[in-house]
Write a structure and sequence with these properties.
eight-stranded mixed sheet, single chain, about 400 residues, Purple Acid Phosphatase, chain A, domain 2, about 30% helix, binds zinc ion, 12 helices
């Protein structure tokens, strides 16, 4: 090892040793922890189908999701809302969706662990579509909840029990709306929001040993940037029942979000009224991106505590290519900015979404600071991680110093 390298190694070691705990006051050191991440509506419009189709006729979404892999890798469990049935061919976009199985396969490839499926498009290919989606996800070993192909399947996946580091989380997925009649559907097919059913699922989750119950609720009004009174009432009802983590989807735009962490005397809660879209061909202001929301749970002396939240805004780029197809790709905004990425004629839309989303986080994103991407270490800096002491930038002056040493 050269003298210069030894010096750099010593500098890095000193940086690690000097690392100090960041915000939050560890009133006790955690015995174990789990970090959850959520993204919103995964849609499958016609232009997305065209983009995903390969020359040999198969489908791939890997190019689209690849820039998000490093974001999904930050969490222990990643959940997304699959808003299209995997109904088999012919594949169709809006208004009656059916997407290729590759959509789910490539979400899993990107790092998504769980898909929630109770939403207003579940019935786009009828009961058969619901059943095919549920069976396909089972065969791909992708965890899912919200719809089911049989009464027995519902029994297994609603609530969906998730275990990590000795912490058990029960995930529920319900919808308040459906495009199509539900009167003759068997009760196992879709979780339609109904307080008696939710209460029964909640009780089953507790009897199965859930430390926390988390509700993914499909609700609200499309394109409304604040929650409505019905959302607020339902959130309060869920929280009074004991479900203190409430995550919303469906409006296709972001809505206010609140996190009150636990303290040693007070029980906290998190409400995210709408995560916005994950990927879609909705190319207008407020709908062309969304938030990846992180929640951190820590077990401290036996008790599971809600300690931190974080937000990672992302934006969907979809430039038109010369062959007439759009090139959909989902980019984490902070990383794109930090590395000086430009989006050509779309750049103004990118900057607009970034500014709008930060305005929301500043005004109605209580408890969800934006995670930063550090170009120097090529890592994301999360609010609960130790913050490294500022590393001196490399200048001709300190290179000279290293050489002299
Ligand atoms: Zn919806």
């Amino acid at each position: 090892m050269t003298a210069q390298r030894t010096h750099i190694a010593a500098l890095l070691l000193a940086t690690l040793l000097l690392a100090t705990p960041s915000q939050g006051q560890p009133w006790q050191q955690p015995d174990s922890s789990v970090t959850l991440m959520f993204v919103g509506d995964v849609l499958g419009h016609g232009a997305q189908l065209k983009c995903a189709q390969q020359p040999n006729g198969t489908y791939s979404y890997q190019r689209c999701f690849a820039p998000m892999r490093e974001v999904f890798a930050l969490a222990d469990i990643v959940v997304a809302n699959l808003e299209v049935p995997l109904g088999g061919a012919p594949y169709t976009g809006y208004p009656s969706f059916s997407s290729p199985d590759a959509l789910a396969i490539d979400l899993q490839w990107a790092g998504v662990d769980v898909l929630v499926t109770a939403n207003n498009h579940a019935l786009d290919r009828g009961l058969k579509g619901i059943q095919r989606t549920s069976r396909t996800l089972d065969s791909l070993n992708i965890l899912h909840t919200g719809t089911a192909h049989s009464a027995q399947a519902r029994q297994t996946n609603s609530p969906l029990m998730l275990h990590h580091n000795g912490i058990s989380i029960a995930l529920l997925s319900y919808t308040t709306c459906m495009n199509g009649p539900t009167k003759h559907l068997p009760p196992y097919a879709v979780n339609m929001a109904d307080t008696a059913r939710i209460r029964a699922d909640y009780q089953r989750a507790k009897s199965q040993g859930a430390d926390e119950v988390l509700m993914f609720m499909h609700w609200g009004e499309e394109y409304q940037r604040t929650e409505n009174a019905a959302q607020r009432r339902l959130a309060q009802w869920l929280q009074a029942l004991g479900i203190r983590l409430v995550i919303g989807c469906h409006p296709h735009v972001l809505q206010p979000l609140h996190l009150t962490p636990d303290t040693d005397t007070q029980k906290g809660q998190a409400t995210i009224y709408s995560l916005g879209n994950f990927v879609s061909n909705q190319r207008w202001r407020y709908s062309d991106g969304g938030l990846a929301i992180m929640l951190r749970l820590e077990r401290r002396k036996g008790r599971v505590c809600l300690t931190h939240g974080a937000a990672i805004p992302f934006w969907v780029s979809a430039p038109m290519l010369s062959n007439g197809t759009k090139d959909f790709r989902v980019f984490p905004i902070y990383h794109a900015e930090a590395t000086g990425q430009r989006f050509g004629s779309e750049h103004a839309d990118f900057a607009q979404f970034a500014a709008d989303t930060r305005r929301l986080l500043d005004s109605a994103g209580h408890g969800f600071p934006e995670a930063r991407y550090d170009v120097f270490t090529r890592t994301w800096v999360l609010p609960w991680q130790p913050t490294p002491k500022k590393i001196e930038p490399i200048t001709t002056w300190n290179i000279k110093q290293w050489k002299e040493n």
